[in-house]
Amino acid sequence: xxxxxxxxxxxxxxxxxxxxxxxxxxxxxxxxxxxxxxxxxxxxxxxxxxxxxxxxxxxxxxxxxxxxxxxxxxxxxxxxxxxxxxxxxxxxxxxxxxxxxxxxxxxxxxxxxxxxxxxxxxxxxxxxxxxxxxxxxxxxxxxxxxxxxxxxxxxxxxxxxxxxxxxxxxxxxxxxxxxxxxxxxxxxxxxxxxxxxxxxxxxxxxxxxxxxxxxxxxxxxxxxxxxxxxxxxxxxxxxxxxxxxxxxxxxxxxxxxxxxxxxxxxxxxxxxxxx
Length: 275
Prior knowledge:
alpha+beta
């Protein structure tokens, strides 16, 4: 069964005497359309309850469901690290929450990420620990094909060794090969994400359900290299397979190969308070 929604270039609606006009572009609607079609598919195949979907949608319409604040999101990430055995002192905890309180996204897809919980010393060990700690959304399993391969930080990457808050932009450099994304990031003065890709998925596992390759891209960890046939020629990435496999695959792609639907997320440092 296939259900599709089409929309005109813009939709305008007028509400009440105040003549409040709401205009939505077709690009913005595209993401909702893809999510709507995915919901329909999952209701049909029985992986989602139609009653639960109706209740959730009604809650959204009535405003009963509100997005968590940035501070709440960051505190939840701190709790996740703490539950994994990461020691976080009260002073650092408070400092990160203060930074979250004044966090200003650079783009529409920029969000806070508490990074560095497992350190940075050996990227392969860190990536394995993050994948082990990742709990997929219901109905999915995970496959780690990176475990037996050697990983390193890409040239020019300078990891910091402490737990801290950063900006994480998942949709940066879409459709570029990791190699071209590295060139573009160097020109733009930005740092490509490496282990942060796996941290983000571990801390925000529901985000992986939104990847569609059009409005929410599958992530390359372009800040890392993977050795293949004696050369550092591949880049770790994360894929999601739906029917029939229903898996999150931790795999790798060629550093010079561009793939539609993939991006190279970036991280930006959060300025210290008073800077």
